[in-house]
Design goal:
single chain, 498 residues, Rossmann fold, six-stranded mixed sheet, binds adenosine-5'-triphosphate, binds magnesium ion, membrane, repeat, P-loop_NTPase
């Protein structure tokens, strides 16, 4: 019956080399209920969920389903117990097709065990049609947008009729429209009695969808109660263990010369006639709904995609950006929205991930000055509050949000003149967001030009000097700081294009 406890974990402990990730966790999820888990980056949320999904084994403690102790050795066993999980990191194989990815690990088979491809095709087409996804089942994942891949993951996880569904930041890469689809589905799942465990850093989302909220800090549960007994400030205070002033550390900085100018840029099918500029010391925002073409423009300027028409000027000089190297040579860098695909070098350490793009900095007389390298990177890690046992730790063992801080540090260290930040605070906890804003302010004081693409209007309004608003591949308007309002921006973002 709804309201009964479906899943309970008791006294769960888990250590990794150098960190105690979970320290005696007690937590339970009810039937027909959405339980939100919040906490700072590195608090232990994903680790706890991975234990429930059989990816990690707890060092101590028990998991109970319907009151009975269960041993969960691997994800396949978890699935047979009715548990499915949507992962925070999009881990997909680019060459896989949609139909393969939907059924991997649970292939429908013929009587004698060989894979029933006809059935897979049929079910894939049904699902794509039902969800209005306009793709062929044979499309490769590498040809899909990040948001479509994420949406497929979500659909896959809820198509098993699982009773316990874990969603680890499911909305970090989907469009607002897809968020609505997801929330509708969550409500249906809740009504049919499923237990949903939902992890998110987005407060508005949390308060919309939660029935219960549990806050983790440093591997412990700090508080757990029904949503109605909480408000946003209280959740934040529990998360970070102190009160935060919610203000943006925006400073009044003298705006300098034009540092980047883009004229009549067009990339067929993505954006058209784009004109904008960024001055020294300026933070320029790009607002718009997901799919408006903001990321596409940035990718073109940065040399990932290129453009058919138009011109780019850096410090007044016309530049031809053929690839990423040429834009880095021009001291322009980009923090990309899909960090998995373009951000990290997986097996390497935190230190290597930061320093590889700027090794030149540490070479004197042909030799690498290792101490200087270590000290500089340690300094950045401390400043940005990267939670890691040491900078020698492999980047993959960091929590999602902390990996992101490392990538940001990497670009900062290359000492760029122009920084393009595509969703720089996505997946980052409230405390660390503030640190990133502070860094942005500091960089603009050093006369850097910063572009911030963001889906979160409050941070655009809080941090930018000017905002360009895009819709359907075009710039619909430009607002100055004293003209910013949420309504004003939304109006332009949803304005019909001619
Ligand atoms: N495979 C691993 N090896 C070593 N350490 C790990 C591993 N996975 C997680 N950790 C560490 O355990 C701690 C908890 O990480 P976890 O990923 O659970 O955090 P999180 O709450 O999900 O954070 P985020 O909001 O950034 O996703 C972190 O200090 C992290 O570095
Ligand atoms: Mg996580």
């Amino acid at each position: 019956m709804n309201g009964e406890i479906k899943l309970r974990v008791s006294n769960i402990e888990k250590s990794f080399p150098g960190v105690k990730a979970l320290d005696g966790i007690n937590f339970s999820a009810k039937k027909g209920s959405v339980h939100v888990l919040c906490g700072e980056n590195g608090a232990g949320k994903s680790t706890l969920m991975k234990i429930i999904n059989g990816i990690y084994k707890a060092d101590a403690g028990e998991i109970l389903i319907d009151g009975k102790v269960v041993e969960i050795q691997n994800p396949i066993q978890a699935r047979s117990l009715g548990i499915s999980m949507i992962f925070q990191e999009l881990n997909y194989m680019p060459e896989m097709t949609i139909e393969e990815s939907l059924f991997v690990g649970s292939w429908p088979t013929h009587k004698y065990g060989n894979v029933n491809w006809a059935e897979i095709r049929k079910r894939t087409i049904e699902l794509l049609e039902k969800e209005n996804l306009d793709y062929s089942p044979e499309t490769k994942l590498k040809d899909l947008s990040v948001s479509d891949i994420q949406m497929l993951e979500i659909l896959k996880a809820i198509s098993y009729n699982a009773e316990i569904i874990i969603m680890d930041e499911p909305t970090s890469a989907i469009t607002q429209k897809e968020v609505e689809v997801l929330f509708k589905k969550i409500n249906q799942l809740r009504d049919r009695g499923s237990s949903i465990i939902y992890i998110s850093h987005k407060m508005d989302e949390i308060f919309r969808i939660a029935d219960e909220i549990t806050v983790l800090r440093d591997g412990c549960v700090v508080d757990s109660r029904p949503k109605d007994e909480y408000d946003i400030d209280m959740v934040i205070a529990h998360m970070v263990g102190r009160k935060l002033d919610g203000n943006f550390p925006k400073e009044d900085i003298k705006i300098g010369e034009k540092i980047l100018e883009v004229k009549d840029l067009t990339n067929q099918g993505n954006f058209k006639d784009i004109n904008f500029h960024v001055n020294e010391g300026e933070i320029v925002g790009f607002a718009g709904l997901m799919g408006a073409g903001r990321t596409e423009i940035m990718r073109s300027i940065f040399g990932l995609d290129g453009y058919q028409e138009g011109e780019v000027f850096i410090k007044g000089e016309k530049v031809v950006i053929k690839n990423v190297k040429s834009s880095i040579d021009k001291k322009m860098v980009m923090l990309s929205e899909d960090r998995r695909r373009y951000g990290i070098i997986p097996v390497r350490s935190v230190k290597e991930n930061v320093s590889l793009s700027s090794l030149k900095k540490f070479i004197y007389g042909g030799k690498l000055h290792a101490k200087k390298e270590t000290d500089t990177i340690q300094d950045y890690a401390t400043k940005m509050r990267v939670k890691t046992p040491s900078i020698e730790t492999s980047i993959e063992s960091l929590s999602g949000g902390n990996q992101q801080k490392v990538i940001l540090a990497k670009w900062m260290l290359t000492d760029p003149d122009i920084l393009i930040l595509d969703e720089p605070t996505r997946g980052i906890d409230v405390g660390a967001k503030y640190e990133i804003y502070k860094l942005m302010s500091e960089l603009s004081k050093q006369k850097k030009g910063i572009i911030m693409v963001s889906s979160e209007l409050p941070e655009l309004i809080g941090m930018c000097d000017r905002i360009y608003v895009m819709a359907k591949g075009r710039i619909m308007g430009e607002l100055k700081r004293d003209e910013f309002t949420q309504e004003g921006i939304m109006k332009l973002a949803t304005k019909k294009t001619s």
